[in-house]
Structure formats: structure tokens, C-alpha cells
Amino acid sequence: MALKHVNAVVVGAGAGGGIAAKELSEAGLSVVLLERGGWSHFWDYAHDELISQRTTPLGNAFGPDDEKYRRVVVDRDGSSRVVLPSEGAYCNNAACVGSGTVSYGAMAWRFMQKDFMMRSTYSAPDGSTLEDWPIRYEDLEPFYEKAEWEIGVAGDDTQNPFAPPRRRPQPMPPFRYNTEGRLLDPAARRLGWHPFPIPMLRNSVPYGGRPACIHCRFCVGFACEVNAKCGTHNTAIPAAIATGNCELRTQCVASEIILDEKGRAGGIVYFDETDRRQTQTSDIVVLACSATETPRLMLNSRSRLFPGGVGNRNDWVGRNLQGHAYAGAFGLFEAETYDDAGPGACLAICDFNHGNAGLRGGGAICNEFIRTPYLFTSRRPPGSPAWGRGHKDFQRRNFKRCVAVHGPVQEMPVFDARVQVDPAVKDYWGIPVVRLSGSRHPHDLEISRFLADKAALWLKEAGATETWPKLPGSGLSGGQHQAGTCRMGNDSKVSVTNSYGQVHDVENLFVADASLHVTNGGFNPVLTIMALAYRVSDYIKREWKGTRFRA
Amino acid sequence: MRKARYPRRKFIRDVAAVAGGLSVLPACNKSRGRWRFFTEEEANTVYAICEQIIPTDQDPGAAYAGVPNFIDKQLVGPYKRFQQAYRKGLAGVQETSLAQFGARFESLKWDQQTEVLKILEAGKARGRTWETGSPKVFFELIRDHTMQGFYGSPRHGGNWDYVSYRMLGLDYPQVIGQNRYKKA
Description:
heterodimer, A: alpha/beta, seven-stranded mixed β-sheet, six-stranded antiparallel β-sheet, 12 helices, 17 strands, 22% helix, globular, B: 184 residues, mainly alpha, 7 helices, disordered C terminus
């Protein structure tokens, strides 16, 4: 039986897709929201470190699973290998309702004004496609505000002199400092820096009908036991369903965008929970599957007009894959710094996001989330014993005496860091899988070394007896902060969508996830993904009233 | 007063049944002798290697924590793909051990065992097995799996008796339901 035609299909129920589904269904459009995973529940994996989103040796708590999914990674020597979702090189984003917003650390950053103008501020280094966004911070500001109030953010930007201007404060008071925060705050001030509490998509007080955080040890990497973490699974998606206009279909894996003879999108072909092939037709299609899966879906959708994949006339789909190089330092202290009070990460500085001599940008530096015991086994000064009595002594002595400060480096986009579809390897449903290749720009490593030095300085000022740097490798970036593969821009030759996420040449096909990011900020990207999804939806709603996107 | 009282006789019978069930539990502990993947010989080698990686001192080590049980369990589950690496790697450990000290790994003295593992870790082990597989890669594999078994959640068959959480001074189950931040 054919499925009933709807106004919009949204693919991916994560940070972007959840919001697009809510906005469109509230505006009266009939919406089908497709999600390849299902609803996740805290008790599925509870506080199991080996199946979390942070450390995944035995699998991904929030999907995808190792049985049905594969990717191909091309190493620097040109050889390729198949990787599983539980392996780091896979660059996994969670496959469940809410996606990463279920298990994230939930930092709620607004990008700074210069983050939207990287090329005009710094000029592009050799080998980078560094560019300005087609929009400015001011264009996104109202949508940041909407995300903060509708999803829920605890923070106080007035304590951050580098924060971009805002009209309205964050809705919840910031989280208090834990022991680390109380140690690091005065140290930063002595250095002349400007520490402030990290804005968080987490309830510091009851908000949105959900309780306040109980400060448990487990946070980043785990679902919240008391539902105090704010994601689209407990805000936007229930709101979308409550309109009566949105149908959420879980365990549905999209394989192709339907394209007609005129090059317009006509819906989505997907495999349902019983692996049956279904065709859902629609007036518009919104892609929000992550910066790896969105380009994969586009590249797998070919027609006479788009032989290389929809929207890919100029070979820009899947290009410029970015994430975040994480740079910082670890420090050991005489006294215990661990107070078993989550979320752990509580303060940051933005003194080094911009204006660093000889460098293009930088990044925020924050104290780290609580380190779980297995994760801590890899936190060692260089040359330390990795096993035996030395390992055990270090673990026992320093688990509660180790502080990490680090931050996400704004990366220089590289054209050849890319997502393709593999010509041979297919997943369980027979869909060609993502093929990842390329590497980081060397400038990212220069910025990383600079930030690592500042981090070490900070820890020493706070009384660390020993510090050692945390530096990224030079391989391909991506990971959970993956972005950039369907760049938005005004020139259709060097971008994939216009400034509203509308794919060039395909007026009823939209992207509403981090694929749109031209650059990825020196910050965790989720609030920007949410704000962009609000902005893309706002445009669709306005256009819908006039043309309904009918040719 | 409730109408239907719980008959005393039934109560005693039920308590006896539960207590009997509990007394069986330590016996389950001994069932670590029944392996899912390892042979008895391999299991002995794995015990000795894991204990080297996280030795017993004032706190219990990897053997007490049931790390071999953890690895064995994962090798027929998510770690099926490492079965051959273990089969071959454990044979290689014996080969290196025999070549170096003329005896099986588990019967070597503590420091001799350490030396064999250091040779593996440095990738310098020789022997037929290692001609087609890296000793370094195998050592890193079993080292990492030992860490997972010792420090990960007890639900996977390691971290017996929450030994690593006790060692680190972490409450388990965690005490929650209170605001743990001190008043600033």
C-alpha cells in the first residue's frame, strides 16, 4: 500500500531534524520524521562505561550497531579498510531519537562574530578552503535565542567579556563551580584571563517540565537518569508529535532521495523496521542526518540531471569535512581535586578564541567532564608505564588528583578531507557506505600547540605539580563534532546550499544540520546546529505560505 | 491487620529457598573454570598475563577481578573478530617464553613473565607465530582488554566485587538524589 503523501519528510531526528520537524509541524505542514534508530532509555545501558558514547569498546549505547553498519576509511598511504561503528575512525554520531543530544556533554555555545568571518578576518592559509559564512552572527542571533529558550540553557554570558551581543539572557542560572572550578577560577584571574561558567543545555533549575540536574558522576556519554539534560528527544520532538501533524517513524533507514525529471525532490525511499522498502512522497525534503550521512544520502541519490549525486554538479558535496582538534593539558595536584560532582566541566575562558598573534582563530579552553575509570587509564604523562605496578599506582594515586583543561580548535577546512560513497562496500540494506579520506590542515596543529601551552600555564598557576600536553594527531577530523560537508554559500559553484540551507538547483530540498557549517567555530557546535535548523525552518515556513514549493 | 496473613510455614520455606539460592552464588564464581572460548591451558596463560598487567598489591589484581572471564565472554560476543588474534597470540606467548626461559609462561617466575611481556611490547619477540603477526599489536590488545575488564562495569564479567571502584574510592552504586555541590 502506498504511503500517504505528506508536505515534508525530515530525515534524521537529531539536533537539527528534531527542530525542523517541530517548526514545520507547528506551522501546519504534515511531516514525517524518519529516524534510523529508536527511542533510547537510560536503563538500556545505564552507567556502563564500556558501552557509552564516550568509550565504545563493546558498542555504541545509542547506536548505530556493529552488525548492520560499516564505513570505509582511506589511510594516508592510500590503502582502505572497513571500520565498525564502535571504532573511533568511523566518526560516529548516535543513531537514536535525539541522536547526540541524548548523551552529549551539552555545552551550549554561540559562535562569536568573527567565527562567521574567518576568511575576511584572517585570509585562507595554503591548502585550505577557509571562507566566510553567507550569514553573519546577527542573522543567527534570534535563532540562538529561540534555541536557548525552547530547548533550555543554563548560563550567564554577562560574565564572559568576549561573548557576542545578545538581546535576552539565558533562561536558567549557570551551574555552580565544582572543586576544579574553584581552583581554576582564581588562577585564571591571576593570569589576567576571564573565566566564566560554561553555558549548558542542562537544567540547573527545573525547566520545561523536567527536573534539575542532580550532579551525578556520569554525564557526557550517558543518557540522563533524571531527564535533566535538554535534547531534542525531550523537547522539540515531543512538541512536534503533540501538534498532531508529525509522525515519527523509528528504525527507518533512508536510502535515496526521490528525484523527478525536472530535478526536484519528490520524497524519500527508506527501509522500515521490518527491512521493507518504502516510498514516502512529499512536497519538500529536509536532510538532517549529520555531516557524514547527509552527503552520503545525497551522493547515493542520482538521476539524469544529477549523475554524481543530487546537488553535486560542482563536486562540493561531502567536501571540507571538519570536526575539532582538541588541545589542552593535564595536571596533577597534591590535594584531591575530584569531588564526584557532575557534570564536571563547569568553567571556560574565551581569551584565546581570536586575536592570537600569527594564528588564524583559536578555541575556548574549558575544564573537562568527569573522567571515567577506563578512560583514565589512557591519561598518562609521556613515558609512564602503561601496565604493571606503575600503572596501578598511578591510577590509584591520581584518579582524584588530575585536572584536564582543553578546548576545541577551530579547524581550517580542507577540500580533500571528504565524504564519498564507497564503490564496493555496502551496509546491511545494500546501501553504499560512507568512504572517508583526507587529513587535517597543519595550521590546526599550530593552534593546538598554542592552546596546549596556555592550558599548561593555567594548571601550573592553579598549583599543578606536573603537567603534560594533550595534542591531536594529524589524521582526518570528524567525530561527533563533524561539520562542513554541504557548505552554505552565495556562489553555487563553491557551495552546496544557499544561505537558507536550500540545495542549489533543487528548490524543495533542504539541509538542516552541521553539514551547512562553513567553519566550525572554536566551540562545541550543537547550539549553532539548532539555531541554523530554526533559521532554515523559518525560511521554509515563509516560502510555504506563498509557493508551497510547487513548480 | 491484613486479612490474609503470610503463613509462617510458607515463610520459612521461602526464606530457606532464597538462602539456598544465595549459597549457590559463590559456586557460580567457581564456574569461571568453564570457558566459552579459551581452552583450559589458554585460560591459565591469560590469567598470568592479566595479573602481570594489573598485579595484586594492597588491592586485588586482574585475576581476582575476573578479567579472564571478561575477555572470554567478549570473545564470543562483540570481540568475535579478535578470536584468531588471541588463539595465535597466546601460542606466540608460549613460544617466546620457551625460547627465552625454556618453560611455559604461567610457570615462569614473576620477573621472567614481566620480561617476556616487555619483549612482546617492544615488538622484539621472535618465533614462528610472530612471523605473520605483530607481538606488539597482540600485547596492546590484551593490555587494553585487561583495562576494560578491570575498570569497566561489572555487568560484563570483570571488575568482580567492584574491585576497581573500591580501589579508586568511587561509590557504586552511586549515591544520587542530592545536590553534591558545596555552597560556594
